[in-house]
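$ ./design --mode recover --in tokens.txt
reading tokens...
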């Protein structure tokens, strides 16, 4: 009951911020420009010439180069400069600090809706202003209880005309597994991780239990692949069975893991990509050899050896 009262009070305190804007609109550091559009469309792999080719753009319905509509938010971004992203006005509490202090320290973006009123063109100088549109009552979510904050960003051009809007929603939540006391946060010595066994991979682990190294084979073209997956990257076939590998291969590449600590493991240990004689590769530990003596090309054979948690894994040792 006291918890409910507290959160109600918090929500009521938060309501005073609804409708607040972040002050003067922030102006973009640069006008909309073709080099930046080119970087964007390269990253998006969007080859539409209306974004970068003057001649093609002139002949299009746009009559000239335009920026991709989805670049709306890009132009007014603060950039990765120290102090470039400030929060709050510095005058009194801001709503984010209030919820943080109440323990709602988690944050996750949940929605982003953009509205475009016109295409942006090179030379446009955008400004953005931000208004806190709403804060939801306390909601139960899978992540934990929290408040949804919805912010409306309004983008205007050099004439002050609105060119677009963005509604952005975040959930500020109290992580469901937050320990009540510091002591509870101290973990017990962790056990070694166990491999997950999804249905597509079950045949592999059943093979391991039977002392077989089973490698998936495409039912269409016969290509071997590992780790197992539903579709052949070579011919797109969804058909597959498996072959039992000879368990012989060579070290194709390897790393010696010194740090960070891995639960249940003794440092250092060697992890190798082993090229199987059958012609596909598999990752595994190299055992029974000092890490400093492992080399690329080292002939190895599979060994079904239990890890520290008792799970038998296909591991690799130098061939006798
Ligand atoms: Zn295939």
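writing sequence...
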């Amino acid at each position: 009951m006291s918890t409910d009262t507290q959160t109600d009070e918090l929500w009521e305190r938060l309501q005073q911020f609804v409708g607040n804007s972040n002050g003067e609109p922030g102006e973009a550091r640069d006008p909309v420009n073709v080099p930046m559009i080119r970087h964007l469309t390269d990253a998006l792999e969007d080859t539409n010439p209306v974004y970068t080719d003057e001649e093609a753009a002139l002949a299009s319905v746009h009559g000239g180069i335009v920026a991709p509509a989805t670049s709306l938010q890009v132009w007014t971004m603060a950039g990765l400069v120290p102090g470039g992203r400030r929060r709050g006005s510095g005058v009194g509490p801001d709503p984010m600090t209030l919820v943080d202090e109440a323990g709602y320290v988690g944050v996750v973006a949940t929605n982003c809706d953009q509205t475009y009123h016109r295409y942006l063109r090179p030379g446009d100088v955008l400004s953005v202003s931000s208004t806190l549109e709403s804060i939801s009552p306390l909601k139960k979510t899978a992540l934990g209880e929290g408040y949804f904050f919805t912010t409306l960003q309004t983008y205007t051009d050099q004439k002050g005309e609105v060119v677009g809007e963005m509604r952005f929603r975040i959930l500020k939540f109290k992580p469901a597994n937050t320990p009540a006391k510091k002591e509870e946060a101290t973990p017990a010595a962790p056990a070694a991780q166990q491999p997950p066994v999804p249905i597509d991979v079950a045949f592999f682990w059943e093979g391991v239990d039977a002392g077989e190294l089973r490698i998936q084979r495409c039912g269409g073209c016969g290509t071997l692949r590992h780790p197992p997956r539903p579709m052949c990257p070579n011919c797109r076939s969804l058909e597959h069975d498996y072959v039992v590998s000879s368990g012989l291969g060579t070290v194709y590449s390897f790393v010696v893991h010194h740090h960070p600590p891995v639960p249940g493991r003794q440092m250092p240990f060697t992890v190798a990509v082993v090229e199987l004689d059958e012609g596909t590769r598999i990752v595994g530990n190299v055992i029974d050899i000092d890490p400093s003596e492992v080399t690329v090309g080292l002939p190895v054979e599979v060994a079904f050896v239990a890890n520290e948690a008792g799970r038998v894994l296909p591991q690799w040792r130098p061939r006798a």
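exit 0
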